[in-house]
C-alpha cells in the first residue's frame, strides 16, 4: 500500500460557506492560489448552488475564472443541479462535486429531497459532466451520524456510495458532518463501502467537533484510505454546534501525516499562514 496521501483542501468552499462573514472575491482568489502554491493537489474552489442558499459563495462565477491555475492541481466546484453545472462550465470548471447524505432526514433539511430523489436529480448532472470530460466527485454527508435521526448504518452509506459510483463519480467522499465519528466506526464504514467502491477512490471528510478527527484519520489510514479532506485554518465551524470546530484543519492533518511517514507534497507552514490570514478576514 502506498504511503503517499492526497490531501483535498476544502477551505475556500466548505470552510467559507460555514463562516458568517462574506469575503471579497479577490481575497477568495488569493486564498485558492496560496493553497495551491503550498502544494495542495486539490483545492475545492467554490460552489455553484444558489446565492440564496449560500450567500457567502454568491460570487462563484467571478472567483473561478480569476484563479491563476497551477498545472497539475485540480479545482473542483460544488454543483447541485444542471443549472449549476451550466454556470460551472461557463466559468471554466473542469471538475465538479455533487452532494447527498446517508439519511433522508438530513437531505430533506439540506436540499429538500430524499436520498433517492437526490440521486435521480444527479443522474443528468453527472451524465452531462462526463460528456464534457469533467472529473466528478460525490459527497455523502452524515455517514457517521445525523443531527436529526441519530445513528446511521454503514450499509446505508455503502448503498449511497455504490449508487454515486454507479452514476460515474470517480471519487466518493464520506463525511462526518457533525463530528461524532468514533475510530472504531471508521473501519466498519470503510469496509462496508469498499464492497461497491474501491478503497483507492474513497475519501474521508472528517470534522473535529468531537475532537477525534485525527484519531479517525489514523483509523482511516489503517483501513487503507489515502485521500482526506481538510480546511486551511480549520475554516468552517459546525452549523449544528455553534462555536465548535467543524472541518479538520489542513495544517493539523498534514503535520499528523508527515509525523507518521506519509508524503503529501504539502508545505504545512504555508497552509497555516494562508489559513491564519483568512481566519483574520472572517473575524475568527
Ligand atoms: Mg466539512
Strand content: 5-15%
Average pLDDT figure: 96
Q: In which range does the helix fraction lie?
A: 40-55%
CATH class: Alpha Beta
Give the H and E element order: EHHEEHEHEHHEHEHEHEHH
Cα end-to-end separation: 39 Å
Describe it.
By secondary structure, the protein is of the alpha/beta class. The chain has one domain: Aldolase class I (TIM Barrel, Alpha-Beta Barrel), CATH 3.20.20. Helix content is 40%, strand content 13%. It has 11 helices and 9 strands. It has helices at 11-15, 25-37, 60-66, 82-90, 104-111, 115-131, 154-166, 185-193, 213-222, 250-259, 268-281; strands at residues 6-9, 42-43, 46-47, 77-78, 95-101, 135-141, 171-175, 202-205, 227-230. Strands 2-1-9-8-7-6-5-4-3 form a 9-stranded parallel β-sheet. The radius of gyration is 17 Å and the shape is globular. The model has no long low-confidence stretch (mean pLDDT 96). Bound molecules: magnesium ion.
Keywords:
13% strand; binds magnesium ion; 284 residues; globular; TIM Barrel; nine-stranded parallel beta sheet
Protein topology:
Blueprint: E1 6-9, H1 11-15, H2 25-37, E2 42-43, E3 46-47, H3 60-66, E4 77-78, H4 82-90, E5 95-101, H5 104-111, H6 115-131, E6 135-141, H7 154-166, E7 171-175, H8 185-193, E8 202-205, H9 213-222, E9 227-230, H10 250-259, H11 268-281
Parallel strand pairs: 1-2, 1-9, 3-4, 4-5, 5-6, 6-7, 7-8, 8-9
This protein binds magnesium ion.
Magnesium ion (MG) is lined by residues 14, 205, 207, 236, 246-247.
